[in-house]
Amino acid sequence: MEKSHNNDTFLGRWISGELSKEELSKFKETKAYKQFEFINKESQLLSGPEIDVEAALLEVKRSTKLKQKRSKAIRLWQTVGIAAVLVISVGLYLNSSKTYSNEVGSIQTIVLDDGSVIELNANSSVSHKRFFWLNNKLVKLKGEALFKVQKGNGFIVEASNNIVKVLGTEFNIKDRINFELTCYEGQVELSNKDEAFSAKTLTKGMQVNILNNVLTETTLQENSPSWLSRVSKFNAQPLYLVLEELSQYFNISFNTKNIDTDRLYSGSFKHHDLDLALKSTLVPMGIKYQKEQDTYILSD
Question: Which stretches make up the FecR protein domain (predicted)?
Answer without folding.
Answer: 99-189
